[in-house]
Each structure stands twice: as C-alpha cells, then as structure tokens.
Amino acid sequence: MNPYEVLEVSSGASADEIKAAYHSLAKQWHPDRFTGDAKVEAEQRFRMLAEAYNMIKDTPRRVDAATPAPSAPSGPAKPPVQIQLDHNPGAEKPLANKTVDEWYQDAKAAAEHRLLEKALSLIQYAIRLDGERAEFHALLGKLLYDTNGDKRALVRALETALRINPKDVESAILLAETFQALGMHARASRLWGTVHNLAPNHAVFSPVAAQGGGKPAKNRDTPSLREQLSSLVAEAKLALDRIFKRG
C-alpha cells in the first residue's frame, strides 16, 4: 500500500498537509455515513486511511514509507480499495485507474441507488479532477438540493453549471427554487424568466397552463412550491404587460 496515494497527497507533502488530507478523507469515508454494502466498503477505506496516516504522520516513518524495503518481493503492487456499486458489480477498476468520466458515472449510479452521501463524495472528487464539466456541477447541485445541504455550496454548484452550460434548464429551475426559498425574489424571478424562455412547455409551468385552459389543476387547494413560483412568474409578466401598455 502506498500511503501517499491512499491519502491523495504527494510524497513531499508537509505534516500539516498530510494531517489535513487525512481528516478530510476520514470525514468523507466515515462508516457512520453509509449503510448496507456501502458501509462495509467505507469501513475498509476508513481503516486504510488510518493505517496510511500512521505510516507517514512523522518524519522517520515517512522516510521508511517512501523507501521500498530491500527484501520486499517483486511483483504487482496491491491495488487500492475499489468502489463497488450495484449497477455493475465486479467491473470496477482500481481507484488509480479510473477516469474522471468513470468517477462521474459511479456518482450517478450511487445517486440512482439513493446512496446520496456516497454520491456526493464521488462527484466532489470528479470535480477535483475536472472542474469545467457542467454536468458534474449540475449533479453536485442536485445532490445538495436533495440532501438539504449547505446553501452556499448549492448555489455555487448550480451557478457554475449554468456558467458552463447556460441552457441547463433543470439546474436553472433548482437555482430559482433555491433563491425563492432564501427570499431572493428578484434573482428568482429573473431565473424563472430564463427558464420560461428556454423551455416554455416545461412541466414546471403546467399549473399555469392548466388554469389558462380552463382545466382543473391537481391539488389546487394545496399548491406545490413550483405551482406557487409559476404563479408568481405569471403575475410578474402580467404586471409588466400593463406597465408597457400604459407607457
């Protein structure tokens, strides 16, 4: 086992960098954050992190870890722990051999299996490898939205996704809903206008369409958040129309 690879640091990393990397990864892979088969895998990774940290946390042992023992037998090194997901068991690669797209696909698979915390860890690592992929930031935003995660990180992820891909309708909808929930109504209204321009027939606007066509909308007595937001967009458009007609 190469402790530097396990802790994702260079062999020249300082003691403080090694300590910070260990605490960050230990928090990310703590077994209490997982359930079922994922918990077993997390326990294995957690043990490896602790072992790697103990090997290189002080200078003498760091030298020993970086220098192969003369009597060590030749042969292939033991691969790092593998991430196993139910979508394709047995087909996973060692961590060092995974491409950024494979990390992304693993994150999507974990999200589909509702392993949301694991999906978050995987997509965050994919973004560290390539931070200019709109779909990576969009998935991170969706996961933070679904887990009621940090709102600043949520907004940052969705704004980055839209900066890279301004036509990402779903990210725009999530960001508009987030701004609305935070009381940032002006920014939410602008985003709803953008969404309407990009996808006027999107299902998010169906309650307004149903009212205009005389068809009963579902759950009219208890409108959903999206129904309320759609109504606000419609009211804003009517108000603007009246202002321009007066002018």
Question: Would you give an account of this structure?
Answer:
The protein is 64% helix and 0% strand. By secondary structure, the chain is mainly alpha-helical.
What is the CATH domain class of the largest domain? Mainly Alpha
- Could you give the order of the helices and strands? HHHHHHHHHHHH
Named CATH architecture of the largest domain: Alpha Horseshoe
What is the H level of CATH, i.e. the homologous superfamily of the largest domain?
Answer: Tetratricopeptide repeat domain
Helix content: 55-70%
What integer value in Å does the Rg equal? 24 Å
Structural class: mainly alpha
Could you name the ranges where pLDDT drops below 50 across 5 or more consecutive residues?
Answer: 66-93, 208-223
Task: Tell me the span between the first and last alpha carbons.
Answer: 74 Å
Give me the secondary-structure topology.
Blueprint: H1 3-7, H2 15-28, H3 36-56, H4 59-66, H5 100-112, H6 116-129, H7 134-146, H8 151-164, H9 169-181, H10 185-198, H11 206-212, H12 225-246
Helix pairs in contact: 2-3, 5-6, 6-7, 7-8, 7-9, 8-9, 9-10
Defining traits:
247 residues, mainly alpha, Helix Hairpins, Serine Threonine Protein Phosphatase 5, Tetratricopeptide repeat, 3 domains, 12 helices, 0% strand, elongated
In short:
With 247 residues, the chain is mostly helical.
